[in-house]
Write a structure and sequence with these properties.
4 helices; 277 residues; mainly beta
């Protein structure tokens, strides 16, 4: 991909959707180097964007649960069908089906909440040097994604306590974003599927094993606060389990000022790669 092509495929455009009717949306296909199918985090991000466009007022997403049903193709558009499940006094519920050629590739349930005042608390921010002091991430299979990444050096997991951190990194978008952006939930959803799967590997920062096949099965996000894609966010990933060809990862997301802005769980299929005939 040339620099010009990379600039044209900006993150803001990737997170946007085209409205076809009141509850039906479409997104153009997007190709990433080193992938044979659609990036699931992008489809999920576009699904939550479509859902929030059907919610009135200033209600913002507080949770989503997404199931990746089948691989998506990068050469055909995706249609997003939104069902308005319920609009209550404080919460709105939506279901979104992402469809290609009549087949559902992702299904999402999302809920939106009216802003309310109350006590705030969350997980403490993990230790990390300032992102400006860290080197750019070494090229890997995520290098073609429009997000700047700075990896935090970690020692080997001690295995002495539950849910030891196995991967920690700063991330941000380097393109301009308006202060009143509505991209908070779609951006966090996109970010939640970036590098998450490598947390189940023995060496999360090493090359991806040639003899391994991995795919997202489902993930859940809880949104605790709004963010701008232009600000640095710290993701702290922990391996919860691995067995039966499935792995589970837990992540917390923190703003630079220490706010705990999101929590993520993701389940992955992890199995030996099928030999190429």
């Amino acid at each position: 991909m040339t620099d010009g092509e990379r600039r044209e495929r900006r993150l803001a455009a990737l997170l946007d959707v085209v409205r076809l009717s009141e509850d039906r949306f479409e997104v153009a296909p997007t190709r990433y180097e080193g992938r044979s199918n659609l990036f699931g985090g992008q489809v999920a991000a576009q699904a939550i964007r479509a859902a929030e466009l059907t919610v009135d007022g200033d209600r913002s997403a507080h949770v989503l649960h997404a199931t990746f049903i089948r691989s998506g193709r990068m050469d055909i558009p995706v249609t997003l069908r939104v069902v308005r499940v319920r609009d209550g006094r404080s919460f709105s519920s939506r279901q979104v089906d992402a469809v290609q050629q009549g087949r559902t590739i992702l299904q999402m349930l999302a809920s939106f909440h009216v802003p309310e005042q109350g006590e705030r608390s969350g997980q403490p921010m993990p230790e990390a040097p300032d992102p400006e002091s860290l080197r750019p991430a070494a090229p890997d299979r995520h290098s073609d994604y429009p997000v700047v990444i700075r990896t935090v050096p970690l020692g080997p997991p001690s295995r002495s306590g539950p849910l030891e951190s196995v991967l920690r990194f700063w991330a941000r978008s380097d393109e301009p974003w308006p202060e009143d952006t509505l991209a908070s939930a779609p951006y966090l959803t996109y970010l939640a599927d970036l590098r998450t799967g490598t947390a189940v590997l023995d060496d999360p920062l090493g090359p991806f094993p040639d003899d391994l096949s991995m795919a997202s099965l489902d993930h859940s996000l809880w949104f605790h606060d709004r963010v701008s894609p232009a600000e640095w966010l710290l993701l702290d990933l922990r391996k919860v389990s691995l067995g039966g060809h499935r792995g589970l990862v837990l992540a917390t997301v923190h703003a630079r000022d220490g706010r705990h802005v999101a929590t993520v769980t993701q389940e992955l299929m992890v199995r030996p790669a099928r030999p190429v005939p």
